[in-house]
Design a protein that fits this description.
mainly alpha, about 250 residues, flat, 6 helices, single chain
Length: about 250
């Protein structure tokens, strides 16, 4: 059954689903990501200590604005706020998408979640994967931020192109064509963008490769959890609302 609720109900549903997703994503980040962050910070501190031979002392360094304990405590707050923001955007996209598709509400929710993960996480990640502390030149942070934003826009364009291609061939008699067209559209846009954007590699040769990729995989797992739970929670809340409406209608006719 397609989404029939008004936008206010969809927005509330999206915020609730986003909050649930944010809390669970924070749990994944804490369990999988924090040990790698701590290890990377230890390497960074060791490198700073080694730099004292050039006349630089610890007294010259600025104290961090937020302690590590504060950062850990704020992790769940940050992921919850991110989940709420994504949940609101999710509801807006669902409100628009239901006007141009005949998908059922739960299936539409999962499709939007998949598209969001591909556009905002997967496409940027495989071009510019996340780096732990002690990796990256502070002088290039603005450039890296703009390039990451460019890959997000690239991901959104690729997902939009895939959705348009899927709609264009939705009536085709061959399933293979209905599957291949959106996949091809997505891959072509992403490939062109990847070739056009510059490559950045600021990982030092002495940084442990295992730690680097464990951190990156934990980051990917956190974002995957966020989008998966967001889609599932929105789909579940949609099904429950539909069932409740059907029950209420049934009793009203008695």
């Amino acid at each position: 059954m397609p989404l029939v609720d008004n936008f206010t109900k969809l927005l509330i549903r999206g915020l609730l689903a986003g909050l649930i997703a944010g809390i669970l994503a924070g749990g994944v980040a804490f369990v999988l990501g924090e040990p790698h962050v701590n290890a990377a910070i230890a390497i960074e501190e060791a490198n700073s200590a080694a730099g004292e031979t050039a006349g630089h002392t610890h007294g010259d360094e600025e104290a961090p604005l937020v302690s590590r304990d504060g950062q850990r405590a704020g992790l769940f707050l940050a992921t919850s706020l991110a989940g709420l923001a994504l949940g609101a955007i999710f509801a807006v996209v669902a409100n628009y998408a239901r006007r141009i598709t005949t998908m059922s509400g739960p299936f539409l929710a999962m499709a939007i979640a998949l598209g969001g993960w591909l556009a905002i996480e997967a496409v940027p990640f495989f071009k510019y994967p996340a780096n732990p502390p002690a990796v990256g030149d502070p002088d290039t942070i603005n450039q890296r931020t703009w390039l990451w934003l460019a890959t997000v826009i690239l991901g959104l364009l690729a997902v939009t192109a895939a959705a348009a291609a899927a709609k264009a061939v939705s009536a085709h008699e061959f399933l293979s064509v209905r599957v291949a067209a959106p996949v091809a559209a997505f891959l072509v846009i992403v490939a062109i963008g990847y070739v056009s954007l510059p490559t950045i590699n600021e990982v030092g040769d002495d940084f442990p490769a295992t730690l680097l990729w464990e951190f990156r995989l934990s980051s990917l797992a956190t974002q995957a959890t966020l989008w998966l739970v967001l889609g599932l929670a929105f789909a579940f809340l949609t099904e429950r609302a539909t069932k409740n409406a059907e029950v209420a209608k049934k009793y009203a006719l008695r």
